[in-house]
Amino acid sequence: MVQCGANRRPRREGSMREYSIETIDYRIDIADRIRRALRGAEGVGVKGEGQKAAVITRDGEAREQLCMALCRVLLNDAAAEEIKRELKAYPLEAAEAERAAVRAGELMRRVPRRASLFANALSRLTEYTKAESALNIEGFLRFRLADAANLIRLCALRAAMEELIRRELSAGTDGETIIIITRDTDPSTEPD
Q1: What's the Cα-to-Cα distance from 75 to each of 10, 35, 81, 141, rounded to whole Å?
Q2: pLDDT digits (tens, 9 = 90+) for 4-32
Q3: Measured distance between the N- and C-terminal CA atoms of the chain, rounded to whole angstroms
Q4: Given this model, what pLDDT does residue 67 score?
Q5: Dihedral angle sign, alpha carbons of residues 156, 158, 159, 165
Q6: In sequence order, what are the beta bridge partners of 136?
Q7: Counted domains in the chain
Q8: Closest by alpha carbon to 39, among 17, 68, 14?
Q9: What is the pLDDT of residues 134-180, one digit of tens each?
């Protein structure tokens, strides 16, 4: 339940809260993913299945556990879905898009700033869940975690370009094998 404007009452830190969490575009079983991320956490209950979940937290500590679980969902599952969405903008065949998605995921995991991305996401989720009770995964990732969304775009771009270069080079070699060597660096620091 979302409370609006003048009807919103300040929440006490120790009070029970219910959150509605959903995804519209991503094919993620949110309820299951949150349950798995919260395995063993006390004071948190998850209802629902598929793209919608209702999560009840008993206190502030349980809310922190929920926020940590949501960070994992956002920076792993939602990031993978966002990579696939970004790759649709490039003229890749199905096999190339699959390879590019895997490569972009590898790039995301290797980013030196990953710990700071997680810390930033956790901070923003903590602030958000203090005041709000409804969360759309896509919207939160794209608008409130713009730095992570931009990094996802860069990783998808780099992976797509590698596939397109591979295609062009192999088309011009008459069957010769071409090895492409790329530097594994933080894609967000690549020159424009």
Answers
A1: 30, 16, 10, 9
A2: 343 444 445 558 999 999 999 999 999 99
A3: 44
A4: 97
A5: positive
A6: 22
A7: 1
A8: 68
A9: 999 999 999 999 999 999 999 999 999 999 999 998 886 555 555 55
| pLDDT interval class at 113 (50, 70, 90) | confident
17-22, strands of its sheet edge to edge: 44-47, 52-57, 17-22, 134-136
Token representation of residue 182:
């790329």
Q: Helix count (H) and strand count (E) of the chain? A: 7, 4
Q: Establish if 168 belongs to a structural domain.
A: yes
Q: Position of tokens 């901070």?
A: 123
Residue 161 belongs to some domain of the structure: yes
Q: Of all helices (H) and strands (E), which one includes residue 20?
A: strand 17-22
Q: What are phi and psi of 134, to 5 degrees?
A: -120, 135
Answer whether residue 5 is part of any domain.
Answer: no
Token look-up 């424009």 returns 192
Residue 191 lies in a domain: no
Could you list the residue range(s) of the whole structural domain that residue 160 is in? 13-183
